[in-house]
């Protein structure tokens, strides 16, 4: 870790493979259309770990993309022309706004695929901050902020982003009431996908995960069946579906081998949903996909409607975040924690409290 001493606050930055810097920077000032937010909690995302492990060779390399995008906080300062938020509001950092009419996706009403949203997600637009939520405060486009309901805790607010990613994928999947579902991977995205699928009416939900601890957590969060990958998963799905296969598979592990495993689990003309980023190339047997006429649905990110749905499910108890919290750490422990996770620490969700630093 390196530390530059020339500013008013410390921010944690992932700058490439194995490169982390706790840098002192100036406190942000409000910009036109912006809000300065005092950050309460920020989650460590799998993409942050991927950037630390593979950033120099990844399309998601930081910079220009920014680490620390799962956060909530309180507005400290605001462009006076903004009338839909106020100083003191508790807010969550959400999806960027679409351009509206300037790209093909928006003209087709597919706003979450807007080219400007994609640019903002990867830190390539004009209003992206140069650092993320691993900092005491941040100035962001106010249109990216959603006011937190009073019933939502800071822990839930900091996990709203991955919950929204899962909600987005389940919505895109076309899941029907009564569908049988397999979720591969019981990390944060997999556990939120399990809960979103249950809230959407899935009948049987099988979670496939090598960690016994995570399998038990999945069961506590509503999985009707849990099993280890491989033969155990294949036999369990065969028993549940009488050999037909599940209607929907959600690949949340981001592991190359599990992509091909999904063809074994899904029924004829079923759907495999991909939302786990692996950062590596995967080899598949295209014949096995073709013979079963499997539909492939991919999902990346979310839009505000997905976050609003996730917040409703948190409020009514359909989504449980507290059981998923492994630890809350101060900013000064961020580098060591990232290294531990990169080296295989079995954690589900770790939150950073950027206020807790000397």
From TrEMBL:
Domain of life: Bacteria
UniProt xrefs under Pfam families: ADH_N, ADH_zinc_N
GO molecular function terms noted in the UniProt entry: oxidoreductase activity
Record domain Alcohol dehydrogenase-like C-terminal: where: 188-312
Keywords: Oxidoreductase
Record domain Alcohol dehydrogenase-like N-terminal: where: 33-150
Protein name stated in the entry: Butanediol dehydrogenase
Organism: Novosphingobium colocasiae
Gene name as annotated: adhB
């Amino acid at each position: 870790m390196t530390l530059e001493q020339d500013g008013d606050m410390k921010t944690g930055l992932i700058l490439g493979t194995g490169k982390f810097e706790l840098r002192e920077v100036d406190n942000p000032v409000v910009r036109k259309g912006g809000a300065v937010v005092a950050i309460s909690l920020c989650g460590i995302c799998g993409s942050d770990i991927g950037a630390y492990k593979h950033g120099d060779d990844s399309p998601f390399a930081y910079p220009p993309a920014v680490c620390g995008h799962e956060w909530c906080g309180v507005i400290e300062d605001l462009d006076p022309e903004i009338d839909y938020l106020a100083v003191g509001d508790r807010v969550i950092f959400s999806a960027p706004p679409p351009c509206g009419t300037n790209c093909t996706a928006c003209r087709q009403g597919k706003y979450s695929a807007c080219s400007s949203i994609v640019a903002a997600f990867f830190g390539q637009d004009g209003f992206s901050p140069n650092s993320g939520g691993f900092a005491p405060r941040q100035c962001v486009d106010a249109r990216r902020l959603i006011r937190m309901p009073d019933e939502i805790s800071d822990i839930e607010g900091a996990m709203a982003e991955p919950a929204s990613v899962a909600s987005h994928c389940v919505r895109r999947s076309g899941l029907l009431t009564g569908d049988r579902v397999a979720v591969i991977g019981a990390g944060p995205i997999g556990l939120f996908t399990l809960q979103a699928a249950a809230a959407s009416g899935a009948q049987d939900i099988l979670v496939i995960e090598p960690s016994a601890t995570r399998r038990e957590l999945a069961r506590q969060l509503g999985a009707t069946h849990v099993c280890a990958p491989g033969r155990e998963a294949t036999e369990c799905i065969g028993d549940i579906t009488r050999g037909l296969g599940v209607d929907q598979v959600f690949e949340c592990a981001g592991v190359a081998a599990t992509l091909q495993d999904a063809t074994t689990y899904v029924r004829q003309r079923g759907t495999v949903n991909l939302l786990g980023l692996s950062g590596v190339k995967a080899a598949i047997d295209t014949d096995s996909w073709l013979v079963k006429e499997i539909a492939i649905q991919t999902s990346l990110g979310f839009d505000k409607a997905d976050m609003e749905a996730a917040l409703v499910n948190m409020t009514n108890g359909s989504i449980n975040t507290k059981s998923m919290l492994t630890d809350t750490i101060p900013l000064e422990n961020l580098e060591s924690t990232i290294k531990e996770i990169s080296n295989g620490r079995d954690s589900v969700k770790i939150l950073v409290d950027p206020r807790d630093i000397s």
